[in-house]
What does this fold into?
Amino acid sequence: MPNLSPAPATTLSPSPSSTVAPSPTPTAAPADATSLISGDAEYRHVLALADDIGSRTAGSEAEAAAADYIAGQLASYGYDATLEPFEMNLYVEPESTLEVLSPEPVSLEPRALHLSAAGDVTGELAAAGLGRPQDFPPEGMTHRVALLERGELNFSDKVANAAAAGAVAVIVYNNEEGAFRGDLDQQSAIPAVGISQADGQRLLGLLAEGPVTVLLSVQGGGPQTDTSRNVVARPPDGHCEEVVGAHYDSVEAGPGANDNASGVGVLLETARVLAASGDDEGVCFVAFGAEEVGLFGSRSFVDGLNADERAALRGMVNVDMVGVGDQWQLFGSEELVAEVDAEAASLGLDPVPAEAPTGLSSDYRSFMDADIPAVLIHRVDDPRYHSSEDRAQFVKPQALQEAAELTLLTLRLLGQP
It folds into this structure.
């Protein structure tokens, strides 16, 4: 059988500095690997990744430390664990600040629009509605900073209209509660940021009382090339007919306990119990880097497979955000999702097949795009998603155990073990 080798790799032996010691391997392998699953063991991996290492942004030293930890665990179970690096082309958000200089000092919290021009601008603030050409004053906006409401026009048109009217910068305030992240179609001619609805209303209130002068700064950011890595573990025979995958990076905002240390904990425990029961033949495990910034890890892995290697894969199981919430969901290849759904009752579980929400995805998509059957095991809803509160204390070991059971079930349906 083919050996999956998308990129040059570095083989690792077990890491002596790993925070969590691997669970002991039984001397006698039971017939059913499910009986070996330990939600507590999975939870200890969540603690190691989220509490001990913390936020694991793509390309960071913390992400690299997490990769070493995962590889060390997998190697200790008897797998050939390798680090497979890849490059990622990112757009780094600029740093932005917004200060009201007069009539009173006020500091606001802007977020630069994607592809905003850089620069430091001081000017008189002027409200111009939605940013349509007719919304700007007849005398123009020369040396002024345009304050625009989100809505009707796309951000690029708003900013272009403001620049054409003579504005030196643009502030777009949200048309609903909260902050937002806006995208421009191309590099803007002038700095452009977004602010919350509350901050926008505050500026409008100041304008109602008289002239307002602001200082807007957008600095840094732009295209950047960085390196991440996948952790790929193969059984002793090297054959890969199924893949279990979970991303191990997180967003910067928090330690990523549920998203996605929970999935990695399930991956590691599934690898351990299959090795312990002697059922690991043909099953490979891949912890993907850089999922949060664009599925870079899984796309690199799949792109590195030749035609024979792709053809050898019966399917992929993706485990993402499985430790918080009350309802199981399944996304992915219709036939495989239906099979898992039908058989899940044998575990006392009732997952819901669903369509992935627009704009949200996970690493299973990279496999489906290559015509490899794939299913995402996911649990909803997590109110702490992508926040500083995504902490281990909210992850449920019982949910982790159920996720591992669903993973083993899916592997059986795919043909292994």
